[in-house]
Amino acid sequence: MTTYPLSTTETPPTTRGINHTTGTDSGPGHGHHRQADLQILIDETGDGPAMITVCGDLDIVSAPILAACLHQTTHHRGTGVVVDLLDVPFLGCPALAVLTATANELGRDHRALTVAADEAHRRLLHRTRIDTTIGCYPTVTDAFHAARTPTTPTPTPPPSRLFP
Predict the structure, then answer these.
(1) Most C-beta atoms within 10 A of its C-beta, which of 20, 28, 68, 69?
(2) CB-based contacts of 80: which residues, under 8 Å, 6+ apart?
(3) Beta 30-35 vs 80-87: how paired, if at all?
(4) Hey, is 112 helix, strand or coil?
């Protein structure tokens, strides 16, 4: 077991297991990150999509930790990344920005970012039009199957003109 002290401004080191104040090494292919009431588990085993399970609020404080975990999984050799948000009571704007940035990065490599989320979060992702970039599904199984399929890159739309 390895322990790593972290402050709120540090990003997790590349080892697999990190807690906000202490961490444990979970072995190759698995990670465990925790901050107060936030817990993020990472599974990068196999050739399939990397899997991130999030439990707790994703707000302005926890979004950088989510970003570090997602950045770690973008280097996984699998077809995409699945984020399980089913145990996330609060999904704030900073976390939405992190998810969108990761989806864009993966899309350049023809890989998908998919999320499993409850109806309220899927509705939020739809209303903000983030669901045009990220596949949103009601179950982890659906999100996992969708992430196994390579994507075609989404072209960046030209800037809109405000005045004719």
Answers:
(1) 69
(2) 49, 50, 106, 111, 112, 113, 114, 147, 148, 151
(3) unpaired
(4) strand
Q: Is 134 in contact with 113 (CB distance < 8 Å)?
A: yes
Q: Can you give the pTM of this predicted structure?
A: 0.72
- Residue 27 CA to residue 99 CA, distance in Å, equals 26
- Within its chain, how far is the Cα of 139 from the centroid? 15
Task: Evaluate the CA torsion angle 95, 98, 100, 102 in order and state its sign.
Answer: negative
Distance, in Å, from the CA atom of 91 to the CA atom of 22, rounded to the nearest integer, reads 25
| 159: amino acid identity, one letter | P
Give 80-124 pLDDT, tens digit per residue.
Answer: 999 999 999 999 999 999 999 999 999 998 999 999 999 999 999
Cα(153)–Cα(157) distance, rounded to whole angstroms? 12
